[in-house]
Amino acid sequence: MDKLLYDELVQEIFLRLPPPSSSSVSLVSKRWLHLHRTSRTSLTLRLTGDDSTVASLSSLLSHYPFLSCLSILLSDPRTKTTLADQLLLLVCTFCAQLLSLRFLAGPVSVSSLNSLSTACTQLTSLCISLSRPLFLMWIIGFPKLKDLSIMVCSGEIGVERGNDYGVFAGEDSDAELGLESLCLSGIGAGDWGLGWLWRSCRKLKKLQLKSCEGVGDGGSFSSFTMCLQGVQEVELRTCRSILDGVLLKLAENCDSLTSLLVYDGGSREGLLRFFSQCRCNLQKLDFRLPLDLKNDHLLAVATNYRSLSSIRLQSCCLVSGEGLKALGTAVSSGLEELALINCDVVEREPGLLSTLGQNLRKLRKLDLSYNELLLDKEFMSMLVSCNYLVDLRVRGCKRLTNASIISMLKSCKCLESVDIMHCGGIQAEAVESFVLNSPQLRRVQVEQSKISDVAKTWASHKFIEAVA
Questions:
Q1: Where do runs of H (alpha helix) occur along 148-260?
Q2: Rounded to 5 degrees, what are φ and ψ at 33?
Q3: Pairing of strands 310-314, 42-47
Q4: What average pLDDT does the chain have?
Q5: SS3 of 100, please?
Q6: Cβ atoms of 449 and 428 closer than 8 Å
Q7: 47-69: buried (b, 16+ CB within 10 Å) or exposed (e) per residue?
Q8: What is the mean pLDDT of residues 201-208?
Q9: pTM of the predicted model as reported, rounded to 2 decimal places
Q10: For residue 161, what pLDDT band results from cuts at 50, 70 and 90?
Q11: Which is it for the CA torsion 240, 242, 244, 249, positive or negative?
C-alpha cells in the first residue's frame, strides 16, 4: 500500500497533518522519514553549544533542503562569536531558500552576515545578535529584508567618534532600505552606528525598542526623527531613560501613529505631554506602568483619542475608577478590546465594572486576568451588558466560582475563546457545562484536571481546542 502513493501525494498529506501527528509519521519507514523531512518548510532547533554542535547541525540541516523558516537558539547565551559564525555558515550552506531566520546562537561577525546575504538572497525576516562596536552597513546586502531584529550583547560601549556606522563615509552614503519593521534591544547611551540606520529607514511601519538607554550617540538622536514619518506602531519596553525623548519626537514628527505600547519604565510628565501634543489617530494603547500612569493621563486620553479601539492596562495601580469611567464614556462608540490586568482598582471600587460594561457594549475582547480578589457579583454585573464578546480571559481570578460560568453562558453566546486557568472556585462540572453549551466556542484554556471525559469527547467532535 505504501508504494502505491506517489511521493508528492504523501508529502501533501504530511503537510495537512496536525503537529502532534506530523512528527510520528517519520517512524513508519525510511521512505516516510525522508519524505517528512523534505516536506518540512519550518524548523526550530535548540542547541547545547558543546564540541559536537557544528557536526550535528551540519548533518541535520542536510536532511531539510526546502526550509523557508528556521530558528536556532543556543542554551548558553555566552557563546563566542567564532562558534556562532560557524553555525551561521552552515545555514548559508544548506538553507538557500530561507525567507525567515531567527539566529540567537551568540553574536555574529560582519563577514558571516555578508556570506548570509550572498547565500540567502530571498530573506525577508532576520533576527540576530551583534557585539559592540556596531557595524550595520551589511544590511544593504539584504535588499528584500522587511523585518529586522537586532540584539546587542553586553560588552564595552562605543567606538571612535566620527565612525558613524562602521566605515568612515560622508553624509551622501545613506541608503534607502526596504525595512518595514525594526526591533533593537540593548542599545547603550554610548553606542555609535545608529545614525546611518535611522536615516536609511524611511519606510518603517513598526518600531520596537527594548532595554535601550539611547538611540545612538552623537548625531544619531537627531537622525532618529528621519525614520518616524510613516511609523504606525511603536513599542517601548524598559526604556525609561529615553522615553521622554522618543515620545517628544513622535509627537513632533509622526502623524501616522496608530498603536503605542509602553512597558516597565515611563515618565509621568513625558506621557502627559505626549497625550496633550500628539495629533495622531491612535487606535491602540497598551501600558504596563505600575508607578507612572495616573488619572490625569487617562483624562488626557479621553479628551484627545475618542476613536480608540483597544485599551490594555497592566499593573497600573495609581489609576482610579474616576479616570477609567471617564475614559470608558469617551471611547464608548468604538472600543472593541479592554484589558485591566492585575489592576487593583477593579477590586477596590465596587460598581466600576458594571459602569464600564454599560458604556462599552460593543466590546469583543475582555481581559481581567490576575485580579485575584475579583468577585462573581462584580464580574457578572459587567457581563450582562457585554453580549458581543468573542474573547474572554479571567486567568488567575481565584475568587470566581461556577456562578460566573453560568453568567457567561447566559450573557455571552458569541464566545469563541475563553481562558479560565487558575480560577480555583470554578469546578469541573461547570467547565463541562460551558463546553457543551457554548455554540461558538473554539478554544478554552483550563487545567487538565477540570476537563471531564464528556467534555473532551464533545470538544473533539466540535473541533474545540482544549489547552491546559
A1: 194-200, 220-224, 240-253
A2: -60, -45
A3: unpaired
A4: 89
A5: strand
A6: yes
A7: bebeeebbeebeeebeebeebbb
A8: 97
A9: 0.89
A10: very low
A11: negative
Instruction: State the cell numbers at 194.
Output: 545608529
Closest CA to 383 of 428, 353, 359, 424: 353
pLDDT class of 21 with cuts at 50, 70, 90: low
What's the rounded Cα separation, in Å, for the pair 257 and 296?
22
Rounded Cα gap, residues 242 and 210, in angstroms: 11
- As a whole-number percent, the residues of the chain with pLDDT over 70 amount to 86
What's the Cα-to-Cα distance from 58 to each of 55, 89, 108, 367, rounded to whole Å?
Answer: 5, 10, 18, 45
Q: Average pLDDT of 78-87? A: 82
Distance between CA 410 and CA 199 in Å, rounded?
A: 56
Type of residue numbered 166: G
Q: Cα–Cα distance between 274 and 304 in angstroms, integer? A: 11
**Are 112 and 138 within 8 A, CB to CB?**
no
Mean pLDDT for the stretch of residues 55-80: 86
Distance of alpha carbon 28 from alpha carbon 17, whole angstroms: 15
Q: How confident is residue 64, by pLDDT bands cut at 50, 70 and 90?
A: confident
pLDDT score recorded for residue 265: 81
> How many angstroms separate the CA atoms of 406 and 384, rounded?
12
Residue 30, C-alpha cell as written in the block = 525510511
| Phi, psi of 92, deg, nearest 5 | -60, -35
B/e letters for 276-315, b = 16+ CB within 10 Å, e = fewer, are eebebebbbbbbbbeebbbbebbbbbbebbbebbbbbbbb
Concatenated DSSP letters of 355-391: HHHHH-TT--EEE-TT-TT--HHHHHHHHTT-TT-SE
Q: Which residues pair with 234 in a beta bridge?
A: 207, 260
Distance CA 400, CA 420 (A): 9
